């Protein structure tokens, strides 16, 4: 297990992916990013998986890019490959048909913070810390900025990007970077509860909704409503919508077929 960069565990529709480079604070080596992309592509077509929990092993969630690896290579083409792969990874998270939940303990910095911002939901330990500290080493966090600027306000994003300071979990919650802050010893349980609630829903409905959200968010109001009116019409034609409505009317538990 110690030699496995990414550990996958599946249980009752919940797929838990553990970043497994504890000695390097789960930094995103090129190999780990590629492993994540490959696994996300496999999960996208796996109807048995309805939600993903992403977490880190060891003392922290993810410290960002593996700077030692990058400096060891030292070539522009390698840097471009690294950042392109990272951009592909983050877009995979956003474009997956099912939700991704970040479970954060310890630090989530630079590309690790970017990963949190890219996830659909995020739960943080009260002792977790976040930063986009590139300015401290002469490397502005430009790619983390893309994800960060889409989940927090402009001034909050620029505060993190320009100062590069660590912020605590409560401050991250105030900014909208995370959904919940819980005690260290409650993080696993609370994440499991949230994941189980998502997994209990129709995968088909969740997939339709997540993808529609991404399409409508930047549209003008009238276009967004036009888009989502079509989406809901299509959703009404699915098996699970009919099943869910019938179950509601007849006061019974729905039996999803995820189609």
UniProtKB/TrEMBL annotation:
- GO molecular function terms here? hydro-lyase activity
Q: Which Pfam families match?
A: ECH_1 (PF00378)
Which domain of life does this protein belong to?
Answer: Bacteria
- What are the protein's UniProt keywords? Fatty acid metabolism, Lipid metabolism, Lyase, Transit peptide
Q: Which GO terms describe its biological process?
A: fatty acid metabolic process
Q: Which family does it belong to?
A: Belongs to the enoyl-CoA hydratase/isomerase family.
Q: Report the NCBIfam families cross-referenced here.
A: PRK08139.1
According to its UniProt entry, what is the function of this protein?
A: May play a role in fatty acid biosynthesis and insulin sensitivity.
From the Swiss-Prot or TrEMBL record, give the protein name.
Enoyl-CoA hydratase domain-containing protein 3, mitochondrial
